[in-house]
Amino acid sequence: MTLSFIEFETSSNPAFSVIWLHGLGADGNDFVPVAEALSLPDMRFIFPHAPIRPVTLNGGYRMRAWYDIYSLDLKSGEDREGMLDSQQRVSEFIAREKERGMASDHVFLAGFSQGGAVALYAGLRHPERLAGIMALSTYLPLAASLREDAHPANSEAPLFMAHGTMDEIIPISAGMASRDALANLGHDVKWHDYAMAHSVCQDEIGDIAAWIGKIVARAR
């Protein structure tokens, strides 16, 4: 693998994998405590560290980022090249899980903020059915191209989206607009919102655990 990562398993023979992408400027350590708090058995969690790259929004400062952000106003343009690069990196992690004996439809793709945007972008375009896609406190990137680019393999993949009503980084209106755009394309989105900022709360952790648990139970 070209990216370093953190990994832990909740049993000696995990039946499902979760590839979890962190937000801008963070690293793979960020969501390890959240995954541990889910208390889900038979899972393998993988937390890649994004590449270090200059971010225009932050004056070109180099930090861990899945793609460049030109402005908080997405109408100013989106980094399609960076998104494609991250999509390829996600595909490599999914391929690694398959090489270890994990079927693609037992692999969840999850992410928070910028990582959640990549999860939506890469997951909906992936040519093999995934177990589900989880996008937290984020938005649908390059939305105009999704109808053309989306792969039918994941047209019915379960989607979980959650957002804070007091999010000061990515306003909940962006998350709701993304939810509606996905619904208009026929995707079944399980939406949750919470009285929180750009973060994760205990109620959200419970809802994530319940969502994953239902998918796992149906697959057994």
**Structural class assignment:** alpha/beta
Please state the overall shape, judged from the principal axes of the Cα atoms.
globular
Overall average residue pLDDT: 96
Please write the CATH class name.
Alpha Beta
The CATH H-level homologous superfamily: Alpha/Beta hydrolase fold, catalytic domain
End-to-end gap: 30 Å
Largest sheet: 7 strands, mixed
Number of helices: 6
How much β-strand is present in the residues?
15-25%
The CATH architecture is 3-Layer(aba) Sandwich
Strand order of the largest sheet: 1-3-2-6-7-8-9
C-alpha Rg (nearest Å): 16 Å
Number of strands: 9
Relative helix content: 25-40%
Low-confidence stretches: none
> Which fold name corresponds to the CATH topology?
Rossmann fold
How many domains would you count in the coordinates? 1
Order of helices and strands: EEHEEEHEHEHEHEH
